[in-house]
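Lecture 7 notes: from sequence to structure.

We start with a single chain of 462 residues. Read the sequence below before looking at the structure.
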Amino acid sequence: MNPAPLIRPPSRSMGLKLLLVCALAVLMSIPAFFVFMLLDGRTNRAEEVAREVGELVGGPQTFLGPVLGVPYTIPSSDPKVGASSGVFIVFPVKGDAQVQAKSEVRHRSLFKVPVYQAGLAFKADFDLTGIAAQAPRDAVLDWGRAELLIGASDARGAQADIVLTAAGRALTVAPASVLSDVGGGGGGDGERPRGDLRLFGSPAGGLAQPDARFQATANMKFSGAQRLAVLAYAKTTTVTAKSDWPHPSFDGGFLPAQRTLAPDGFTATWSVPFIARGVPSQGTAETLTRLGATALGVSFIEPANPYQSVARSLKYALMFVGLVFLAYFMFETTQGKRVHPAQYVLIGLAQIIFYLLLLSIAEHTGFDVAFAIAASATVGLISAYAGWVFESRKQGVIALAAFSLLYVLIYVLMRLEDFALLIGALASFAAIAAVMYFTRRIDWYGQPALAADPGSTPKEAL
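Now the structure, written as tokens:
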């Protein structure tokens, strides 16, 4: 009688182990979320500092070149209803603005804010021929109270008095009073119409007459922070801006027609014809608020913003934690030595701490240096841990090569913004394909092995 065949005790299912590893990778999203919250707090603090510094120097500034404001009244046929009044705005037929900005970086604690001092020279050619016929119906224009108006977002940024001339004659500039009857003033003082501009003006009653033609110029010197913009204040407006800031970002209603970028600064020229401006050549005071869409702006940006770079890297945290976990799982299957789930958690936490190191160091050194330091420390740690867990120096060297390649991939993703998704998807596909290939002979169910020959030794399952 033959003895009963030997039955090998069931082995742990590698399929269940892989599912557990995937679950642990997803679990690492929780500490990654807390790192993201910390990053969000630091980002908000940086923006708060930028606002605080900006308030001291004028903040993002928007400027308006010379326009003409003429008060008017419309009599009422009903004695019980008083005459209505308003301001008729006339834009110059041609405007030219020259902007020269000198920049610097202000520091507060770990945060940096780009600020500038800008000199602006405006020219405006007025032609009032036939303008009276364009006024609101039945309006009586009060040419004697007309004012030349100019504007800036924040008067606290003024570095010198505004010099305004018309027809070769110097004019005294003060907060605009002609708009006090419009009802759009800030605080009821009539200085700020609806919108974000603070208006200044000078009486132009001697110049502004029906069918008159004259030229006005304005010279301003203002400080500001982060952004500078000029409104298309004439029917046809040309603006030329020069600065020593090497990293401009052009925005607003129109992009420059020409621009030159260099390490020592930039030059940009905008040309906005009347047909593109989309605002009539004259109208009520409300017309001024429509100029906001015509802003010709440039932002002084920091290209190596560490918070933006760290935020981009955090978006791929789950994918890269999962790839490292898959690598350790592959080491398990090839080395025949089990890795405890607690050890996977330690590996995941080491990768999460990488982002903490990256954020804290980047605030002092910039992103590139911080990434090199944080990645070297993290790759060295998890590679050494592989050598300790599998008791193999060779396995540690293999892990070092694999994880170094992985973190190089992270850096490439951070630098190639336009192709980050494509590269990340291809890398994930390649990693899954490699796992599928190298685990093709694994007994995922962990079935017990039967031995027909009592003298034979069951084959070890991976």
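The mean pLDDT is 81. Keep this in mind for problem set 3.
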